[in-house]
Amino acid sequence: MIETVCTIELPVDEVMRIKRNRLEPDEKKENQKRICIVTGIHGDELGGQYICYEIIRRIKAEFHLLNGIVDVYPGLNPLGIDAVKREVPPFELDLNTVFPGSNEDAMTEYAAAKLMEDLEGADVCIDVHSSNIFLRELPQVRIHSEEAEQLLPFAKKMNTPLVWIHPSSTVKKGSLAYALNHKGTKTLVVESGVALSINQQFCNQIIEGIFSVMHHLGIWAKESIERKEPVVAKEEDVVFVNGDCCGIFLPCVEHAGKVKKGQCIGRVLDTIMGAVAQEVIAPCDGILFTLREYPVVNEGSLLARILKTEEQENE
Ligand SMILES: [Zn+2]
């Protein structure tokens, strides 16, 4: 059933509506659990659109397997999605910085408060992100260290190669995940791909992971796949590679591949001089789980993140 969670009157006779689709068994089951799938908090991240479609499609196709409530929210920032904007137009405010919001404040804070009301009390909430326009990401669950203990059992079921315990912006104070976790509603953030596009392979991996969490909760009666154990990485396991000059970044390795210490992973080009301004060298062995997508770089721009692996001698 499609319901409107939040309605906000806008100038020029427009209305912003945040909607959810609730799927639940025809007859209420005993100890029925609830999972919430939310996405589109950043309007330029579109992988979650396909994930919502596919989750609803699969549940409808095998409805008899549903033993709990699945609430799907495809567009937490509908104005941003319509306007191809990451933030909420027209104020350009990042919705994922204003949680838990307030019922008396401006539009975004009010929307945040309404969403909190609706999501609180779910057994698990999964907040689906698709990086940004600058960086391409391997599917990964991100969790704040404060929540690691209680979230890890669910994070490990998400069918991602990586679970990263790191205070990134999607899980820190002001984010939906942080606010919900602090209210006792377990919330996982999943990142993958790159903004403004849909990587179906990555999305399909995450969809299997969501069904796996649903199965674990008793909401879905079928375990769909063999899952691999993810690498659980802490801050010290990840090495950041930054640019040391301005220019155009061209990678020379594949995203998500293995790299060796000393290997060239890309070049920053000085286009007016026709020269290479920086050879970007891998500082360690590992898996290149983040790779810069947007070519223009400045001094300090993030070019890659490497998940460190043991260095192999004699190779
Ligand atoms: Zn995001």
Q: Which descriptors would you attach to this protein?
A:
single chain, 315 residues, alpha/beta, OB fold (Dihydrolipoamide Acetyltransferase, E2P), 2 domains, 13-stranded mixed β-sheet, 4-stranded antiparallel β-sheet, binds zinc ion
In short:
By secondary structure, the protein is of the alpha/beta class. Helix content is 21%, strand content 32%.
Task: List strands and helices in order, with pairings.
Blueprint: E1 2-10, E2 14-23, E3 34-39, H1 47-61, E4 69-73, H2 78-83, H3 107-119, E5 124-128, E6 135-143, H4 148-155, E7 162-165, H5 176-182, E8 187-193, H6 200-217, E9 231-233, E10 238-242, E11 247-251, E12 258-259, E13 264-270, E14 275-281, E15 286-292, E16 296-297, E17 302-308
Helix pairs in contact: 1-6
This protein binds zinc ion (ZN).
Write structural notes for this entry.
There is one protein chain. With 315 residues, the protein is an alpha/beta fold. It folds into 2 domains: 2-232, Aminopeptidase, CATH 3.40.630.10; 236-308, OB fold (Dihydrolipoamide Acetyltransferase, E2P), CATH 2.40.50.100. It is built from 6 helices and 17 strands. The chain has helices at residues 47-61, 78-83, 107-119, 148-155, 176-182, 200-217, and strands at 2-10, 14-23, 34-39, 69-73, 124-128, 135-143, 162-165, 187-193, 231-233, 238-242, 247-251, 258-259, 264-270, 275-281, 286-292, 296-297, 302-308. The strands form 2 sheets. Strands 1, 2, 3, 4, 5, 6, 7, 8, 9, 10, 12, 15 and 17 form a 13-stranded mixed β-sheet that branches. It has a 4-stranded antiparallel β-sheet with strand order 14-13-11-16, with no helix packed on it. Helix 4 (148-155) links the parallel strand 6 (135-143) and strand 7 (162-165). Helix 1 crosses helix 6 (200-217). The protein is globular and about 65 Å long. It binds zinc ion. Zinc ion binds next to loops. Zinc ion binds at residues 42, 45, 129, 170.
